[in-house]
């Protein structure tokens, strides 16, 4: 992996443009400032706003989320995914021709347990101490109360259901993840509101969660500005590269002269990566959430249930349930039936929610785009056209969790220092890349 080590800015202070002010982009900006770089953040929207992916996620800082979504035998489920538009993972028929190459790579990545283990080993290096890293960032940004480390719970209806997930837990154990088993009596004591059909809990003490991801990302972005970053509200459209060196980021309002750039634009990073010579198979795993603002029952510990494939826990704005995967691209209209399914699952998990004590219950729905690569690993590394451009996106289901260390890694690459963990598994060059011949590369506005 090539790391740029020479600076062209006067005085030797490298000017970097961070494209995107989501969780990864904001962490990258903070860490780049810490490394002594000059930082410009390019973000057209309000950081942490409802348009942002992290705004509506489940808030889990699940350092044990190292198992990729595709596991051996997943190909057998494809007909069901196509037949059930409201299942936990759904494919819209009209989008299938475009998604098929990604889907085939997705299935191949989990074809054997050995492949799954390699992915898990790599992800563990990225996620292992995520709660502590986020606690540090939150404290620096003045919102320490938003990060908690009280563990996370997986609830199963039976021992047999847990055994059905044995491969995933076996893989986790090999990476060093430890957990506690809560038998039925202990689960009832700890989670009195949880439906009685759940008889086994798997509690992971090391994990944490965020009480308000949107507010947290907004605080990180504000902290970057308070500590010296500049923000420009514009869309990135490409790059001007001369002699193998980045000279400017192109935007819809003009050029930004710079020495380096980081692409942290989430699910919309693909065209920019291609403009930097790295064509990567990025797809949106569309996810939904529902928030019950006036809920009177819910989990004591943030909880995922195996039968519903959703996560439920208290946010500062109410009880949130998040989950579902829908492959339909960035532009398709939401199917709010999927959010209604989450609400129904939530009421099933906590039966008293279906019987509100009094008055109307306020329920809010949301849709966001998880930036996902088919092998379950993000891209973190230099672009093919020039090492002055760093790719940092594609975290799928672990974007918020992995953002803290990814920001550190991206900043280390931007500063020309050696990354703190091996980046070979995340190298964008693992996908076949083509370097354009033109010296000025353009992408659709991002």
TrEMBL record:
Residues 15-413 form the FAD dependent oxidoreductase domain. It is an enzyme of class 1 (oxidoreductase). Pfam families: DAO. One of its GO terms (molecular function) is oxidoreductase activity. Keywords: Oxidoreductase. Its EC number is 1.4.99.-. The keyword Oxidoreductase applies. It comes from the Bacteria. One of its GO terms (cellular component) is cytoplasm. This is D-amino-acid dehydrogenase. It comes from Variovorax guangxiensis. The lineage of its organism: Bacteria, Pseudomonadati, Pseudomonadota, Betaproteobacteria, Burkholderiales.
